[in-house]
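User: Okay, second chain of the day. Same drill as before: sequence in, structure tokens out.
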Amino acid sequence: MERTDWSELDDTLARLLQEPSHASQIMNAAADVLIGDPFLTVNAWTLDDAIRIGAHLVTDGLPDAVAAEAERAARLALPLAYRGETCDTYALRLRAAAWSIR
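Assistant: Same drill. Structure tokens below.
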């Protein structure tokens, strides 16, 4: 028999499952930062700055443990940058990778 009485908890759970994870949001925020310098070449420093800024924007106000875990998960999901790749092309690949950790 199909359940027809949806509770408030069911609605909240459904909404949470549809929202992207904090790590995914960090990756998208980092992509926004990288697009700000579209012709700059991606390297370890630019990528680290973008992730740190993205993490600050997304996790500000969250408990430290939650913020640290979200940033760690985002860093683990980063695609490798190609030699000479510009920030704008990397940002596109970063957004695609963000979908993988929804």
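The chain has five helices and no strands.

User: Thanks, on to the next one.
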